[in-house]
Every structure is written in structure tokens, then in C-alpha cells.
Design a protein that fits this description.
Low-confidence stretches: 1-16, 51-58, 135-139
Structural class: mainly beta
CATH superfamily of the largest domain: Carboxypeptidase-like, regulatory domain
Order of helices and strands: EEEHEEEEEEEEEEE
CATH class of the largest domain: Mainly Beta
Helix content: under 10%
Strand content: 35-45%
Mean pLDDT: 75
Number of strands: 14
Distance between the termini: 95 Å
Number of helices: 1
Shape: elongated
């Protein structure tokens, strides 16, 4: 009688082969290296992680627009930052405020989640592009918006659909 071989496979990689014999079962070494098992495992994990998510919701972005007033007047020059709240692993959104208006387009828009809103404003245009609250705290910059609206802000916006969002901010001294 010819002994039959039984083979356990993981994907396309043979792990080991069991061969019955007169004295019992002989375990032969893997027909392919164990490093191949590791590669197969890594590929499987990458595929599972890459394919997870809820029906593509994580990739939908929302356009957000609005106005910003400070002390009863339109904020002429500023920056509005949307910083993800803890627990939301999302990118930060940021755009300029000009003549009291801001607009963050869909392409650079906000992903679904909750964001802390930071608003910084100046009496006149800052020298550089999109400055941050930390880089403009000196009195020479003309920074007029108090910290309670930027570095210590409690303002929030929640993005729960890809529909455009209109969010106005009325800031007081």
C-alpha cells in the first residue's frame, strides 16, 4: 500500500506535510520557508486593515463656509482651523478669513467627525501665508482675537454628512 500524504496549507504556502509510515506519522519540514508564512500573514493583515471602514464614509468630505464677526464687525483678516477632537483620527482643516468670510472647499474639506474650531484674526494682513495663533501672539502682529477663540477655544463643529455646512461665528471681546 502506498502511503498517502496530507498537507496543511495557508493560502498558497505549505506549512508542513504529514506522512503516515509503519512506525507512526513523520512530519516533514515545510516545503516552503517559514518566512513565506510571515509574508502571507502581513499581506492578509494589510488587506484587512485597508478594506475596513463603513461604506466609504471615511473618505467623504464636506464643504464648510461661513462668516466671522468680532466685536460686532466682520473680521477682515484671519485664519480658521478645524482641529479634530480627541478620539477622531482625522486631518486638520484650515483656511483664510477675508472680509469676514471663509470657505473650505470639498477637496480640502472636513471628513466626518467632531472638530475644535480655532479662529485667529489681525488688524491688517499678516506677512506670511496661513499663520497660526502661536506664531502671531506678539503685539506687533496686530492679533486681535482673544485666546478663548484660538489656543483655548471651546468652539466646535460636527460633520456628519457630505452636505455643505454653513457655520457662522460671532466672537465677542
Amino acid at each position: 500500500m502506498v502511503p498517502a500524504e496530507f498537507c496543511l496549507e495557508l493560502g498558497f504556502v505549505d506549512v508542513f506535510t504529514l506522512t503516515p509510515s509503519r512506525n507512526g506519522v513523520v512530519v516533514k519540514s515545510a516545503s516552503k520557508g517559514f518566512w513565506q508564512i510571515g509574508i502571507t500573514y502581513c499581506i492578509a493583515v494589510c488587506l484587512l486593515v485597508g478594506c475596513s471602514g463603513r461604506s466609504g464614509e471615511n473618505h467623504q468630505r464636506a464643504k464648510i463656509t461661513g462668516s466671522v464677526t468680532y466685536d460686532g464687525e466682520s473680521l477682515q483678516y484671519g485664519v480658521i482651523n478645524f482641529v479634530p477632537k480627541p478620539g477622531f483620527n482625522l486631518p486638520t482643516g484650515s483656511t483664510e478669513i477675508r472680509n469676514g468670510q471663509y470657505q473650505l472647499e470639498v477637496r480640502g474639506g472636513l471628513l466626518f467627525g467632531t472638530y475644535r474650531v480655532e479662529i485667529t484674526g489681525w488688524k491688517q494682513p499678516p506677512d506670511g501665508a496661513l499663520a497660526t495663533p502661536e506664531s502671531t501672539d506678539d503685539p506687533q502682529s496686530g492679533q486681535i482675537v482673544p485666546e478663548k477663540y484660538n489656543t483655548q477655544s471651546t468652539l466646535e463643529v460636527v460633520v456628519s454628512s457630505s452636505a455643505p455646512i454653513r457655520q457662522d461665528y460671532v466672537l465677542e471681546r
